[in-house]
Design a protein that fits this description.
Blueprint: H1 2-16, E1 19-28, E2 31-32, E3 39-43, E4 47-52, H2 53-57, E5 64-70, E6 75-81, E7 87-92, H3 95-98, E8 102-110, E9 113-122, E10 125-132, E11 150-156, E12 160-170, H4 187-196, E13 200-210, E14 223-225, E15 230-236, E16 246-254, E17 262-269, H5 276-282, E18 289-290, E19 298-299, E20 311-317, E21 339-344, H6 349-352, E22 356-363, E23 371-379, E24 391-397, E25 419-425, E26 429-441, E27 455-459, E28 462-467, E29 506-507, E30 510-517, E31 520-527, E32 540-551
Antiparallel strand pairs: 1-2, 1-3, 1-12, 3-4, 4-5, 5-6, 6-7, 8-9, 9-10, 10-11, 11-12, 13-23, 14-15, 15-22, 16-21, 16-23, 17-20, 17-22, 18-19, 20-29, 24-32, 25-31, 26-30, 26-32, 27-28, 27-31
Amino acid sequence: MKYSYLVLLLITQLISGQNYTLTYEKWSNGTRIENQDPILVYTNSFLTLVSSEGIFSGKNDFPLEQIYIDRANQNLIQSTKLNQNKSIATKDSLALGKQTFELLNETKTILGYKCKKAKTIINSNTIELWYTNDLNVKGAPTVLGQNLGLVLEMTRNNNFVITATKIEKLKKLPAQIALPNSNFADGLTYRDLLWKSRFITLTVFENETINFSDKSKSNDSILRFANGTVILRKVKFPEIKNGSPIFAELKTSSTGDAYDRTGSLFVIPMKGENTFFNGLKHGINTLPIYQNGNGKIYQGVALKDDYQPLTELMRFFTPFGIKQYNHISLKDKTWYNEVPYRQDISELQPILSDQEMWVGAFIGNYDQGGHRVSVEITIHPQENETKKTTFALPLFNTTNVMEMGGQEYATMFSVEKGLEVTFSLEKPIKNAQLRYITTGHGGWENGDEFVPKKNSIYLDEQLAFSFIPWRQDCGSYRLFNPASGNFSNGLSSSDYSRSNWCPATVTNPMLIDLGDLSAGKHSIRIQIPQGKPEGNSFSAWNVSGIVLGEPVE
């Protein structure tokens, strides 16, 4: 009995002495991925760690995620250092046992070791694993296949490969490798905290009311203008690295208003004295005016000298009465409680990076209950992307966000001149584009909301682009529109096609190629055959434009 125990102890010591480290690299479509962080796996009979060279060398930024396999207890432990002072972990004793594989008869040699093949399908992805039992240890470069053997290669859908490039035998594992043993969170909480740690979230508004009421007042953090239809908050944007995606997300629901309304999310620079903020604070008529001979004046809509118009991040449209009017019942209709709008605004990085800005939201309504709004802007660090846009200049924005403060509707397209803006470039730019948002309004049968109209964009008096902005998918958003009126033909108001917008949608910007622009003066002119008024009804076009470009090297 004593002899058997000593033999068992000796065998255990010999096996546990088989410590290995493996290096893995990634390939995509037959090409090695450049500037990658190679995967490191440390393993013996008691413990496996999946990490990376960047984490071990201290070069990687937070979050630092590693995977541990406690082989004695068959626990999968995921651990992440979120920042210098905070770490989280989660433990799962069932995950490894739930993995199933089809064991195949194929074999091949990798780094001198005979490997067998296993296959599994996860979320419609075919995963093939090549593993060896020659080293008497188990491990893998991911969670998958940790109990098959030592996985030396993993292939996904025949186009992405993780393969071992080096195997080293160690006397012992590095001293810093130890199983996490406390502060375990449930898996859902862990994944949520890990996901959110991968990007920067700027919370702008949380459940703020946008309504029409003389009782709508500013406070220490939120400024309100135009009887509460415009709200502003000061936000400091961090430095945003080249190629990092930026997203604007806005959620809204009705707290009284039943109608589809124009909405805009925008920014105003803190720098400079001549900004739209002056119009909000001191009255719309303090802003530069635009005139084109149609007899009206338009306040603050166009670039002039040192004045820049509002930089529009996102144009959105509220649905008919979401949440507040969900008591309106229709058979087989289950209404949503809020509408989420989320849009990529990465091309505006030159305007936002490392700037303190007023971020504002507008919903044009005359309802005391109004709308409830939450806004976040997220910045997602992304390396190895070439920055395409380094120049951005706001030229015009005709959306009258100060509608309830006397700003004129965008009816300047009643004459052929339309909207014309001149601008100067100190240096030439190449691959210039116009980021152009356009929506037509006039909510009766002959109004431009429901009549297709061509938009023509002229650069230096030469036609650069023309198109008819029109949305035909409005019926897709019926479940966001409980208070939409129903007609005798079987359609609801929210079903009808419109001039580039639908109730409950975002209007996407057009990126219009302008070519290379020389230094000096240029002009952009927008021409739209705006429909004529009928009685008290009139048409208008809300357009915004920002010139984007790259420096000439």
